[in-house]
Amino acid sequence: MRAPGRSALIVAMIAFPIAALTLGATLIRTSVPTLEEYVTGEMGSAELVVHPATAGDVDTAAIASVLPRGSQVVAIHQWNHTEVVNGSLVYATVWETSIPIDRPPLPGLYVLMAGRAPTRTGEAAVDPRVVDVYRVSVGDDIAVGGRTFHIVGIAARPLQMSSPTLVVAPGTLDRAAVANSDDVFVSSLLVDLPKNADLASTTARLAKIVVGSDVRLRGKDAPDADVSLQDLIATRDNSAASFINDAPVLTGVSFAGTTLALFATGLIAAAAFGVGIRRQLRMLGLVGATGGDPRHVRAVVLLGGTSLGIVGAGIGVALGIAGAFVATPYLYRFTDRLPGAVVLHAPTLLGAALLGVVAATLSALWPARIAARMSTLDALAARLPPSKPPGRLAGRGLIVSTIGAAVTAAGMIRKDDVLPAAGSVMMVGGFLVAVPLLMNLAGRLAARMPMASRLAVRDTARHGRRTATAIAAAALALMAPVSVGALSLSEEAHQAQYQWIGKDHILIGTTGSETAPREMLTKIRDALPDSITVGINFAAWDAGVRKGTAGTDGGDGGLAFVERTVFSVDVRGHSFAAGWESAPLFIGGADLLRALHAQDGIHALESGKIVGIGPGSVEAGVVRLPLPPTAAFSSSDGERIEVSAVAAGATSYGNREQLPGYVISKDAARRLGLVPGGSGPVSPSFQTLVAALRPLTKDQIRDVKEIAAAYPGMFVQTLADFLPQFRTARAAATGAAALIALGIVAITVALVASESRRDHAIMVAVGAPPRVRRRIAAARAGLIALLASVIAVPAGFLSIAVIQFSRADLMVRSTCAQCSTHFPIVIPVAAISIVLLAVPLLASGWGWLASRRPKSNMMLQPLQ
Amino acid sequence: MNVLQMTDVTRIHGAGHTAVTALRDVTLGVASGELVAVMGPSGSGKTTLLSIAGGLDRPTAGSVEVEGAEISALRPSELARLRRQRIGYVFQQLNLIDGLTAAENVSLPLELDGVGRKQARQAALTAMSAVGIEELADRYPQDLSGGEQQRVAIARATVGKRSLLLADEPTGALDSITGESVLRLLRGHADAGGASVLVTHDARFAAWADRVVFLRDGRVVDETNTPEGPESLLVPR
């Protein structure tokens, strides 16, 4: 503890990874439900839960009639509603229970977090996601789908927090009054049996009156039965059987990640202990002078590491636990589950603490060995052991690195899974070992450099072995932002290959039945000059026309779909039977084809053919339209008609359920018995397509969304809404990784700077002005950071390249004919720029600022 | 005017119960062309006196002037310029930078002063030639013997136009022959018009000085002029 700053540094380096491990492991334990929590979250305290197949099959009175006297049946109605709230598309779920949620068997199935349970008609308890999305709180009124509820509490279903949920008081969800009332259905019936009721016989009686004739029970009572019906009626044992406890696996992954982090940390800690040894020379010399042998010296250093490890691990575990208590209330945002009380799992916490202590002790092992080998006289005289030039190991590292590069290249050429990964490990590992050699080479080239740089390079080279350890740790840390950036950008590029809609397309939709206001469309057109705006009309079978009578124009014969072969007989060497894909048919004209960039199909469209959008959308010049499976239209469900068709346009859009994939003209449609109309196969459906005819800019997208936000119920979506968005996550992950890396670089720089105190003191003594001293410190810090960055960039990028290559190889062997085998590798320019430029600059700045004038006694006797 | 003028200099290390007075009201002047030896037992304040004279440390009280400039009034950068342009310091521990060659160590003050690398090297070679180690220019300190390192340190202290040369036990780790040669260098600097201060506790070496100042417990307890003529039988003056 003679050097409190250095000790604090080591303690912090041990404490932070252990804190992260403790936090992660505790949050995993807290968020993953226990078996009992899982079963209770599924069915409260009820003994049985019945999941009716359809709403019409539920006869609560009939169910009650087969139950033992004293049983209670609680019906849970569910209403799903989609609407636009504050500019976002929200899929809200409203539950109504036949008894208040604070009465058995509902507690546990619903957890009341604040306020009270809704008991009077019109009252509701909302979950935290509703609070977030609708921006409401207890005491407010909330409007969902045209119905207004008064919020009296905050309550959630612990296992179902993926979307905003409300639970309303009994009798509130009047089916007749709810828009789309057909969507209200009984999702489950909870059966609370009296004590001593025979569960097996009750279940058997129940099974006879619900859809399906049998029920499978797990455990010793389970009769032979149809497994597919097992979910119709479930006992607590059934629910328990479906419980998968993934906490141990996730905890194991956390430990593995932390071990890797501690490896990097350990490298720095080892360097820190190394510096400490040099500053404890006299004390260690005294140990030897007073009769201690090398074993005692080694023990002194090792125990120093262990004691710092104990302190660091203790602080880390405490910080992790505190963090878990702070983070747990917000956990539902990431896990879709409401966590219970913070679970402090003693073996996990002890394991985390032990890991920290072991890491610190191992970090002190190498410096302890060096200290034990030092002669007592040298130690007493504070004579540093001379720096050794890079040894054979560094040379071998360079050879291994070269071989690794060759193995990686060979593996990629041979499309092998293992070789590229093994080769890259050899390459990076070998390179890290070869760092002293690299630095030694740099030192030799330094003669012509300006004095500050020359001294920085020579000094770094002179302490090659020691600083290489720290540089390796910094390089490992700096790999993270490069890897994160490369992986997320590459994944975005991979996803972008699936062209859901065009880069210039805007889909305008509504969650209700209203149409897009003309004024809104005009404003959007004004915002996008030269754009094409067309309505999206699904083709629907018209019962009247099909029967040869006047059309009703109602399209109540159902939507028309186009069928086509999607599997070739031979997919990448695998043989497949032909398969079918169906996609809705749309009615439109030349403008629609222009908007879809398929104007080459306009002539065919006008001549009565169906135009398939994109290459391969039509085979053999025809498409098949299955007739609707109704007695009015067909004699059998398999009847199809063939229509002449052509493929047009360069792109097949992936969003065929909302963006036209097949287009027929209005006249041709009428001849086939098709009329415009009908809602799409998925909700919400889009009504209008706007094609800007050139890729949309961020500003244009923002402007259009702002225009739509002014019209209730209307929303717009662009390609960005269909693609996974990694930008925020990438920025956050890259930023976090860069910050951590910077922290490690700063620590590394501080450690190396402490190695150079003697030289600094001499410099000042012979008249170096403060700016020169700072310049040397900055040059040294920048050099170390630059060396680490130069290693980190290819290593971080290479690891992702290997991953992408393996994924591509895996996909080539897969049977997914529609999946892209192209896994692009995108160079993360921003992350690399940060690592190569910003990090060395920041490190230099840190070196400049952290440089302090040595004390006069240091200048006179720099070894002290 | 004295090149170095210390007046009523007091230096107290620490504070409270642990306070130690290393120098107490010391007044010392060193003129151009004069070599002054400072003698005294261990802990008498010799090194403290030299470090204050060299601007490495600041007095608690009193004034220190080098060529008329009060060094306690100088900013850190001005003090640094004074050290690299006017004061040469030969440290007891030599204080050579291991990462620089002998020539680079010698040229360090010049390079720090903005002199070009080639020009500074040329000046360094001249200074090294004066102490007889020109051929060692491109060796690193760890490749040199103790005596050779001492000469490099002296060359670094004399390179350029230094008016004040301060040497703290420059012969402490040297054999007698090498020690004599070092003293001859210091004497030569003084004879060439420079002012020199030599800290030693070896009367044999102090005899090379024009004047000997005795310190005890931080005070100047005696001061005497040395007799004419060399003390050394090996290397007569």
Coarse structural class of chain A: alpha+beta
Look at the structure and name the CATH superfamily of the largest domain in chain B. Answer: P-loop containing nucleotide triphosphate hydrolases
Mean pLDDT of chain A: 76
Number of helices of chain A: 29
The total count of strands of chain A amounts to 24
Compute the separation of the termini of chain A in Å: 17 Å
Describe this structure in words.
Chain A has 864 residues and is of the alpha+beta class. Chain A folds into 4 domains: 1-32 and 245-386, no CATH class; 47-236, no CATH class; 450-498 and 725-864, no CATH class; 505-722, no CATH class. In chain A, strands 1, 2, 3, 4, 5, 6, 7, 8, 9 and 10 form a 10-stranded mixed β-sheet that branches. The longest helix of chain A has 44 residues, at 770-813. The radius of gyration of chain A is 35 Å and the shape is globular. Chain A starts with a helix and ends with a helix. Chain B has 237 residues and is α/β, with parallel strands linked by helices. Chain B folds into 2 domains: 1-86 and 162-231 and 233-237, P-loop containing nucleotide triphosphate hydrolases (Rossmann fold); 98-161, no CATH class. In chain B, 32% of the residues lie in helices and 26% in strands. Chain B has 7 helices and 10 strands. In chain B, strand 4 and strand 5 form a beta hairpin. In chain B, helix 3 runs parallel beside helix 5 and helix 4 packs across helix 5 (146-158). The longest helix of chain B has 16 residues, at 176-191. Chain B is globular.
Any descriptors?
heterodimer, A: 864 residues, alpha+beta, 10-stranded mixed sheet, 8-stranded mixed sheet, B: 237 residues, alpha/beta, Rossmann fold, 6-stranded mixed sheet, 4-stranded antiparallel sheet, 7 helices, 32% helix, disordered C terminus
Task: Chart the SSEs and their pairings.
The complex is a heterodimer of chains A (864) and B (237).
Chain A: H1 4-31, H2 35-43, E1 48-50, H3 60-65, E2 72-85, E3 88-97, E4 111-115, E5 123-126, H4 128-135, E6 141-144, E7 147-156, E8 165-168, E9 184-192, H5 199-209, E10 233-235, H6 236-241, H7 247-279, H8 281-289, H9 294-327, H10 332-335, H11 346-373, H12 376-380, H13 392-413, H14 418-433, H15 435-444, H16 451-462, H17 464-496, E11 505-510, H18 518-527, E12 532-535, E13 537-541, H19 543-546, E14 561-565, E15 570-571, E16 574-575, E17 580-587, H20 590-595, H21 602-606, E18 610-613, E19 622-626, E20 640-648, E21 662-664, H22 666-672, E22 674-676, E23 686-691, H23 698-709, E24 714-717, H24 719-722, H25 727-755, H26 757-765, H27 770-813, H28 829-850, H29 856-860
Parallel strand pairs in A: 3-8, 5-7, 17-21, 18-20
Antiparallel strand pairs in A: 1-9, 1-10, 2-3, 2-9, 4-7, 5-8, 6-7, 11-23, 11-24, 12-23, 13-17, 13-22, 14-17, 15-16, 18-21, 19-20
Helix pairs in contact in A: 1-7, 1-9, 1-11, 7-11, 7-17, 7-25, 9-11, 13-14, 14-27, 15-16, 15-17, 16-27, 17-25, 17-27, 17-28, 18-23, 25-27, 25-28, 27-28
Chain B: E1 4-13, E2 20-30, E3 35-39, H1 46-53, E4 61-66, E5 69-70, H2 76-85, E6 87-90, H3 102-112, H4 117-130, H5 146-158, E7 164-168, H6 176-191, E8 195-199, H7 203-206, E9 211-216, E10 219-225
Parallel strand pairs in B: 3-8, 3-9, 6-7, 7-8
Antiparallel strand pairs in B: 1-2, 1-4, 4-5, 9-10
Helix pairs in contact in B: 3-4, 3-5, 4-5, 5-6
